[in-house]
Amino acid sequence: MVVIEDLIKAEEKLKEDITETYKKIEEGVTGTYKNIESSVVEGYTKIEDGFVDRFLKKDNESLEDAKKRLKEENR
Predict the structure, then answer these.
(1) Coil, strand, or helix at residue 59?
(2) Is 48 helix (H, G, I), strand (E, B) or coil?
């Protein structure tokens, strides 16, 4: 009976270890995805702001006001 109890304990420990490993992998993948997503959004925003600033902004208009105006015009 001691052998069976040891096998059961070993199986439970193995399950816990596997679950912890999967959680670490999940956190790593999710964290990496969030970093990539954030970088892409920030890059797009910089490009958008630069385009609006150079080509669509009217004289003496702030970038924020130009973006609001453009949004209203496109409704």
Answers:
(1) coil
(2) helix
